[in-house]
Every structure is written in C-alpha cells, then in structure tokens.
Amino acid sequence: MLSPATAPHRSNRQAFTFIEIMFVVVIIGVLLAVAVPKLTGQSNKAKIAATELTIRNTSTALKRYELTVGAFPTTSQGLEALIEKPSSIDESQWDGPYLDDEVIPTDAWNKPLSYRSPGDHKKDFDLWSNGSDGQEGTEDDVTNWKKKD
Length: 149
Hints:
Structural class: mainly alpha
Strand order of the largest sheet: 1-2-3
CATH architecture: 2-Layer Sandwich
Shape: elongated
CATH superfamily: Glycoprotein, Type 4 Pilin
Radius of gyration: 29 Å
CATH class: Alpha Beta
Distance between the termini: 78 Å
Number of strands: 3
Largest sheet: 3 strands, antiparallel
C-alpha cells in the first residue's frame, strides 16, 4: 500500500468535470443554432441562382429557335422542340438541337421547367420554375418575367 506521501495528488487531475463538458456542449449548440439556418438559406439562394441561369440559357435557346424557324415553339410543342424537330416544321427550317446537352432543362429541384407561348406575362413566351414547393403561382417561383429584388 502506498503511503500518503507517495500517493499521486488528486489536484493534478487530467479529466474534465461534468460542468466543463456541459459548458462545451452548450457552446456547440449555440454555434449550430446560429450557423445552420444561415447555411440553409445559402443553399436555397444557390438553387435559385442556378435555376435563374437555367432559365436564361433556355431563353437563349428559344430565341435561336425563333430566329431559324420564324416562331417560338407552341405551348403544345413545348421545350421538346429545342431537342427534336416538331412534325409541323420543315426540315430545312430546323437547325437543332438548340440545347447543347440535348436534355429538357430542369430546375435545381429536378423538376422540368414550365413553358407557355405566347406568354401571359411576356409577349413571346413565359418560362418558369415552380420553385422549391412545386406549386405554380407561389412566392418561390423563379420566372423569366419577375425582376430580382
């Protein structure tokens, strides 16, 4: 048995107390409570920006189509007309495909873009995404007719 003189001192402990551990857990919780909502908002902003870019690129393809064919695709022909020649178009008029990847464009939520020609909001065509909620006509829609705030 060790004598009190040779026993290790308890004051030289190297472990954390329960209070110290809880203090660290609380600090981490506060940091997460502040950081997570900010990161979530950034993710949504990035998706909106990506969808806006997709709408601009698709609009450019639609304008190229209109220059060669002489009219925008009808609503019934849809964006598919940018990839495959519509049956009502003469072969000599169609110079497609007008999209580089030959795939119908989707928004950042992996939903196809909506298209209408002539447009209800713009004279030539309306092009939009229903946004994260997937519902048309709601606040989160990304469109070719609304200006960014």
